[in-house]
Design goal:
The structure is a single chain. It is built from 10 helices and 2 strands. A two-stranded antiparallel ribbon has the order 1-2. The protein has one domain. Strand 1 and strand 2 form a beta hairpin. It has about 260 residues and is an all-alpha fold. Pfam families: TauE. It is a multi-pass membrane protein. Keywords: Cell membrane, Membrane, Transmembrane, Transmembrane helix, Transport. Belongs to the 4-toluene sulfonate uptake permease (TSUP) (TC 2.A.102) family. It is found in: Cell membrane.
C-alpha cells in the first residue's frame, strides 16, 4: 500500500486506498446502508486513530448522503412537507448523541448492535410487507418524527454503524413507504444526523481534513452509482442486500469488535 511518494504528508498509496475503500462504502451505503462497516476499518488500516476515523467517516457520510439526496430529489421521490417534519428531530438526535459520547463512551453498543442487526435482517428476509408499493402507515408522520426519528438520530451520533439501515426499516415498517422511497428518506435523515455530528467533531478539533476529503471523493462516486441501481431495481435489489449487510455487520461486531 505504501509507495514512498507523499502529498501533504500522506503516502500516495494510502490516498488511493482511502478513495477506493470509500467508493465501495458509498456504493453499499446507497444500496442498503452500513457503509461504515467498510469505511471505518479502511481509515483504521490506513493508520488513523479511532476518533480521527469516526470524524473523517462523518464527513464522508454527510457528503455521500447529500449526493444521494440530490439524486433522489431530482427523481421527485421526496415530499418537502414530510421532510420538514422529519429533519429537525434527526438533527436534534444526532447532536445529542454526539455530545453524549464525549461523556459516557459507547463501548457497550458493540454488544447490543449485533442483536439489533440480526433482528432487522430477519425482518427484511421474511416479511412479506417489504416491497416497492406503499402500504398503510402504522404511525402518523408527527408521532414518528417525535419518537422514532430522534432515537435513531441519537444512535447515529452516539455510535453510527447501520443507522441508515435503521432509518430504512423504520420508514418502511411504520410510515408504510415503498422500499425505494424509504431508501430516499433514510438517506436524507442520515444526512441530517451526520451533519450535526460532523459539526461537533470539527468543533472539538478531531477532523483529519485530507483523509476526510479523499474519503468523500470516493463516497460520492459510489453513492451515485448505488442510488441509480436502487432507483432502477427497487426491492428486488435492496431487500437481499439489506439482509447481507445486517448479517455482515453483526458478525463483524460479534467476532472482530469495533
Amino acid at each position: 500500500m505504501m509507495t514512498g511518494i507523499e502529498f501533504w504528508g500522506l503516502d500516495l498509496g494510502v490516498m488511493a486506498f482511502l478513495i477506493v475503500g470509500a467508493a465501495v462504502a458509498g456504493f453499499i451505503d446507497a444500496l442498503c446502508g452500513g457503509g461504515g462497516l467498510i469505511s471505518i476499518p479502511v481509515l483504521l488500516t490506513a493508520g488513523f486513530s479511532p476518533a480521527q476515523a469516526i470524524a473523517a467517516n462523518k464527513l464522508q457520510g454527510a457528503v455521500g448522503a447529500l449526493a444521494s439526496t440530490h439524486y433522489y430529489a431530482g427523481k421527485g421521490v421526496l415530499d418537502k412537507r414530510r421532510l420538514w417534519a422529519l429533519l429537525p428531530p434527526a438533527l436534534l438526535g444526532g447532536g445529542l448523541g454526539t455530545l453524549a459520547i464525549q461523556f459516557v463512551g459507547n463501548r457497550f453498543m458493540s454488544y447490543a448492535l449485533p442483536v439489533m442487526l440480526i433482528l432487522m435482517a430477519a425482518y427484511f428476509a421474511f416479511s412479506k410487507q417489504i416491497k416497492d408499493e406503499p402500504r398503510t402507515a402504522k404511525m402518523g408522520v408527527a408521532a414518528f418524527s417525535f419518537t422514532v426519528v430522534p432515537l435513531i438520530g441519537f444512535y447515529d451520533g452516539f455510535f453510527g454503524p447501520g443507522a441508515g439501515t435503521f432509518y430504512l426499516a423504520a420508514v418502511t415498517m411504520l410510515l408504510g413507504m415503498s422500499l425505494t422511497a424509504g431508501m430516499a428518506y433514510s438517506r436524507v435523515l442520515n444526512l441530517a444526523s451526520n451533519l450535526v455530528s460532523l459539526a461537533i467533531f470539527i468543533y472539538l478539533g478531531k477532523m483529519v481534513w485530507l483523509a476526510g476529503i479523499l474519503m468523500t471523493v470516493g463516497e460520492v462516486a459510489g453513492v451515485y452509482l448505488g442510488s441509480h441501481l436502487v432507483y432502477k431495481n427497487g426491492a428486488k435489489l435492496v431487500k437481499p442486500l439489506v439482509v447481507v449487510a445486517c448479517v455482515a455487520m453483526a458478525l463483524k461486531y460479534l467476532f472482530w469488535g469495533n
